[in-house]
Design a protein that fits this description.
Blueprint lengths: L33 H18 L7 H10 L12 H13 L3 H25 L4 H13 L1 H8 L3 H22 L4 H13 L5 H14 L19 H22 L3 H29 L4 H13 L7 H17 L7 H19 L3 H4 L4 H26 L9 H4 L11 H12 L11 E4 L2 H10 L8 E3 L18 E4 L5 H4 L2 E2 L2 E5 L14 E5 L1 E2 L3 H8 L4
Parallel strand pairs: 1-2, 1-3
Antiparallel strand pairs: 3-6, 4-7, 5-6
Helix pairs in contact: 1-4, 1-5, 2-3, 2-19, 3-4, 4-5, 4-6, 4-7, 4-14, 5-14, 5-16, 6-16, 7-8, 7-14, 8-10, 9-13, 11-13, 12-14, 13-14, 18-19
Length: about 550
């Protein structure tokens, strides 16, 4: 992507191509702090890799594994990229949790380095870049998304790539970066449609930035002129076209899923939006983030980068309006943090005070204090987001981060279903069906079911619906897993009785703990008629 240069190789330096004038922010950059930044990124990768297999799969990961067996250009709740990454990661690194998460771990390390790149674009020298990398490395969101594979894992990485590219565009004024930005945006659209919110936030933010400082420069909005921006948008659409076509053919099901999220959790998402922004970043890093926001707002030398702050605010407004989940607005938060790292590092870390006869002891105290705060953030956020605690002690943190508890108990769930399957007479197993009420349970049955001789698992949840229904000759018995969240499911079957209960053996309170497994004598109607009634999106 040419991140190290000021313009794409061989590009035109005339005014029409977005020339760099003397005195512009594009005149030069500090050297990239290769050693500190890569050292921090490598340390994060090593910790994540060491802990990747300690608990087990998350329910979403089990769904991605199943989706990876049904590769397509789209799914009802997501584009194709994350299931494809799940399939590739397990093919290369193994089918266990550590193998699946290898891609997420690598994306985590790359994101840490990219935040340092963003700080460099914003003028940070060696200490500022190292602080940016360390701040990203200890933040709760980077640690959480580096531990398990999710659509947000790739989103955080690719949005940070886009942030670096946009900063390069704004700093140099070279509009030829738009096609590169468009291509990366197209890849992001193949992972999640949320990147459209970033685009909707960024373009008006650039327009709002106004003219340049008193030197008569055109300011950030000049990059919106010409055909480079429309060309980049067209390239994004071309890259994402296969998924967009799939969505159109299937009636845009992702809009249905998004509507379900807003309807069911919209109020909670809005009420928790601000506190979760602070928690996902880390309260320890808030002063640096505030320093970055003030710098973008008040420093006239940073007017070219001011759209970064505006875009984050617009994005927050859009997420609140739509009732989206708080983490939807997180990636730009890291870029605003990067804007504050240069000044904070200069104030707390640089030895200028000692070199100029100032208080060298004060500088040393500042360094110790800064390192201490980062270590506190690393310790607290690791305890909350990573599998550090014994599984039996997860109640101490799962009330803050419930995703940790969702990584425990899946083999035990399948064992309970296996116990129920043992009660199905052998002569009836040829027409028997195993049906789960959500994609996590169905994904676990697909992944672990062979241990107990279980047949293919079916579900009406998300894209599992599209991989069914069972054949009409499969009239029962039906082994029904966890019908309680969806009582309408149980009404589709007859003669149901409980034959097993899930117990993860560690007392971890999650949705599947103490879930019932029912054995039903048959179906209330042929599967072809029941199937539309069994679909649910959220």
């Amino acid at each position: 992507m040419g991140i190290r240069g000021n313009a794409p190789a061989g590009g035109d330096t005339s005014a029409g191509g977005g020339a760099v004038r003397a005195g512009d922010p594009a005149a030069g950059l500090p050297r990239f702090a290769v050693g500190p930044v890569l050292g921090i990124a490598a340390a994060v990768v090593a910790v994540q890799a060491a802990l990747a297999g300690r608990y087990g799969f998350h329910r979403d990961e089990l769904y991605f594994l199943a989706a990876g067996r049904h590769l397509a250009w789209g799914y009802v709740d997501q584009p194709p990229l994350t299931p494809l990454l799940a399939r590739l990661s397990t093919a290369v690194f193994g089918t266990g949790p550590a193998g699946l998460r290898a891609v997420a771990v690598l994306l985590c390390g790359a994101t840490v380095a990219l935040v340092a790149f963003a700080a460099r674009e914003l003028g940070a020298r060696r200490a500022g870049q190292a602080l940016a990398a360390a701040g990203a490395a200890v933040s709760a969101m980077v640690l959480a998304l580096g531990h398990m594979l999710s659509t947000a894992s790739f989103d955080l990485f690719v949005w940070t790539v886009l942030g670096v590219l946009v900063l390069r565009l704004l700093r140099t004024g070279d509009r030829r970066w738009w096609p590169v930005i468009g291509a990366v945006t197209g890849v992001a659209l193949l992972n999640k449609d949320l990147v459209l919110l970033l685009a909707v936030a960024l373009l008006p933010a650039i327009a709002l930035a106004g003219p340049g400082p008193g030197d008569g420069g055109p300011g950030p909005r000049a990059v919106l002129r010409g055909w480079w921006l429309p060309g980049g948008a067209l390239l994004a659409l071309l890259v994402a076209a296969p998924n967009l076509y799939w969505e159109a053919v299937h009636g845009w099901p992702q809009l249905t899923v998004a509507s379900g999220i807003s309807d069911q959790d919209g109020l909670t998402n809005r009420l928790t939006f601000v506190p979760m922004q602070l928690v996902y970043l880390s309260p320890v890093l808030i002063p640096i983030w505030l320093a970055g926001f003030r710098r973008l707002r008040d420093d006239e030398r940073m007017r070219w980068a001011r759209p970064l702050g505006y875009a984050y605010l617009v994005l927050c407004g859009l997420v609140l309006l739509l009732g989206g989940k708080p983490y939807y607005a997180l990636p730009p938060l890291l870029l605003v943090l990067a804007a504050g790292c240069g000044p904070v590092a200069e104030r707390w870390w640089a030895s200028a005070g000692a070199d100029s006869g100032g208080d060298g002891g004060g500088t040393r105290r500042g360094r110790v204090r800064l390192v201490g705060l980062l270590l506190v953030a690393a310790l607290v956020n690791s305890l909350i987001t990573l599998p550090v605690l014994p599984a039996g002690r997860l109640a101490a943190v799962s009330w803050i981060y419930p995703e940790s508890a969702e990584q425990v108990g899946w083999p035990e769930l399948v064992a309970a279903v296996g116990a129920g399957w043992a009660q199905v007479p052998p002569e009836q197993r040829g027409r028997a069906v195993v049906f789960a009420t959500d994609y996590g349970e169905a994904g676990a049955l697909v992944h672990y079911g062979d241990r107990y001789g279980l047949p293919a698992a079916y579900s009406g949840h998300m894209s599992f619906y599209d991989w069914g229904p069972p054949p009409d000759f499969a009239t029962g018995p039906v082994l029904l897993v966890h019908p309680e969240p969806y009582p309408q499911v149980e009404r589709a079957f007859t003669g149901c009785r409980q034959v097993a209960v899930v117990d993860n053996g560690r007392g971890v309170a999650n949705e599947e703990q103490h879930a019932p497994v029912l054995l039903c004598t048959g179906t209330a109607a042929p599967w072809s008629r029941l199937w539309p009634r069994l679909r649910h999106f959220y």
